[in-house]
Amino acid sequence: MATVPLVSDEEASAEVLAVFDDIRQVRGTEYVNNFWRALANDPALLRATWERLKQVMGPGALDPLTKEMIYVAVSTANSCEYCVHSHTTAAKAKGMSPEQHGELLAVIGMAMQTNGIATGLQVPVDDVFKASP
Amino acid sequence: MATVPLVSDEEASAEVLAVFDDIRQVRGTEYVNNFWRALANDPALLRATWERLKQVMGPGALDPLTKEMIYVAVSTANSCEYCVHSHTTAAKAKGMSPEQHGELLAVIGMAMQTNGIATGLQVPVDDVFKASP
Amino acid sequence: MATVPLVSDEEASAEVLAVFDDIRQVRGTEYVNNFWRALANDPALLRATWERLKQVMGPGALDPLTKEMIYVAVSTANSCEYCVHSHTTAAKAKGMSPEQHGELLAVIGMAMQTNGIATGLQVPVDDVFKASP
Amino acid sequence: MATVPLVSDEEASAEVLAVFDDIRQVRGTEYVNNFWRALANDPALLRATWERLKQVMGPGALDPLTKEMIYVAVSTANSCEYCVHSHTTAAKAKGMSPEQHGELLAVIGMAMQTNGIATGLQVPVDDVFKASP
Amino acid sequence: MATVPLVSDEEASAEVLAVFDDIRQVRGTEYVNNFWRALANDPALLRATWERLKQVMGPGALDPLTKEMIYVAVSTANSCEYCVHSHTTAAKAKGMSPEQHGELLAVIGMAMQTNGIATGLQVPVDDVFKASP
Amino acid sequence: MATVPLVSDEEASAEVLAVFDDIRQVRGTEYVNNFWRALANDPALLRATWERLKQVMGPGALDPLTKEMIYVAVSTANSCEYCVHSHTTAAKAKGMSPEQHGELLAVIGMAMQTNGIATGLQVPVDDVFKASP
């Protein structure tokens, strides 16, 4: 159903298999999900995307669960069905409770609502909100 | 520049002033920002939006700073200039460090990127991502 | 500030002026707004857009004010600053009252909110909502 | 297929059932659609969303059918598959004729088109469109 | 599954059949895809959309393949599942190679990423980017 | 006006200056635009974004001008004011003629229009559009 074939392990080149193996090791699972198998049609794009994702989503000033919830929020606003599913699953795996999931959805809904109202009203940005140069 | 006039304290009805006063008290500041002054043209919409925002953004299973960062993420994906400014300011006021701000932007950028790639590839959702009925 | 120059009456070709004149006549005003002056850099696109707009936005099974409010709703969801301003002005000119404007914004906000929640939940479409083939 | 289980009547708490019952009564049907069954995983969010929807979508300065069409317009611009289906169904139930549906789609298409062109041209907002402060 | 029935050749009016026939002739195939069969519920909208599409997507200052890739890019950013599928198919039919498809996706992903970062940072537009008036 | 200060050459760290210098050399100009100066608040994000952009936008299976036009298309659909300005300027610098610019806008407008109509109709994807697995 994708616009490209999904690449199985058998069809994968050595370059692609190396990325698949790194995904498996970092995540501690044998399962490589469809996003990477579709992306594998372009090995360079596969590698660049995975390397960057690994770096961005690791621990830092924000914890991995917070990052996953931000990812879900963006994916929801962009109506990316695949991304909502995969990153909601990831957030649950990283400990998101049903209560946290409910609040995540409530904040997304609230933000969408006031995004619409503020844009519809074309409210001018307050001077106090502008960062000093 | 808004599509409606901004309502000053002098022009505000008692109903509107009551909401403005609650905003001032909850936030501990005299300043009422333009969003509420624009919304005040419809007192019922003003009250409903403020009451809901107060409830959703308060402490719960997620802390207020995490909620503000999720709010910024949604507002960014929706290109709401006003909301990005006001909620980035709010996140800073709630303690978001420059490092956290940088990681927030990195996650937003990463999510936008893979949203585009997953949608462009029309990757089918893996069965393992679907919640049991 | 546009990505192209705005075309004044003096700079306009005969082909462009003919469209400007039709805009003036249909709208009963001398004023030609910036959208058309920017679009005039491509006379064929100017003509095709104006001819189609005139046809779509005229009276039909929906009245012109309802059409303008739908236009504002789409433009808001798409964060088109120019379009929100121009079509809110047009809706007011066609009789939109402050109460109607407030309800329009309330519906936009409600729709945005449930759009976010339904997408975040990935709610499957009920069979009863699907039109018969 | 949702990111949460759908809550059946049998699984519903008393708090959830009370909302389901109100939905049934207000709409005059036994059927409770999937959106509410998914939302029922967070009873507080379920109640707040339903109470607000009931208020916003009822008769007022705009009639219920006009509101539904505005809802469809926003949902379409936001690519919310579920919302397009459910609110198109609701609009038909409130009397939207095939001719009105066709014009709704034509206006949505026209707005999307000029949203893209105006944003691509970055047309500056005319002074005459700005509401007086 | 559409919000309207798909119109078969047998059900089509003479006006609709004339458009279907033109689609067949221009594209050199007997197959009329679902978009046109859904649109056929409003014959005037069907004709206007097809006539405009035929004109816009034909050869000009940009070649047809470049136009198709731009179409895919917009459709991806707007999360239009149908449009991503149909225009990716069209781009392949017009000669898009797997390498070009990969680069198209890489550019879409890059643009989405910096769209998010630039909007999140609210970067002011440089004076040098503004076209002279 | 940004949500962060713009970093001048004087304020820049050695790490940031090294990226600025590479931007200057690759582009053959002394001018470093605001996007990079805002991004410089997070040197790691600055470097990663620039390195990736340089790689993605260089010549390959698609020529640089085609890539810039695709970039403009995505940025327009996402309503990124900054990105539309900067990448339209870049496209002109790479040789986009006024005729090509007009056709780019016409294709964007056409795609937006049919995106809205296809989503509003919820047209099911034709089997013939689905790539073989």
Automatic annotation (TrEMBL), chains A, B, C, D, E, F:
Pfam families: CMD
Alphabetically ordered keywords of this record: Oxidoreductase, Peroxidase
GO MF terms, alphabetically ordered: peroxiredoxin activity
Protein name: Alkylhydroperoxidase
Organism: Ruegeria marisrubri
Chain ranges of the Carboxymuconolactone decarboxylase-like domain: 43-115
InterPro entries listed in its UniProt record: AhpD-like, AhpD_core, CMD-like
Gene3D superfamilies hit by this protein: AhpD-like
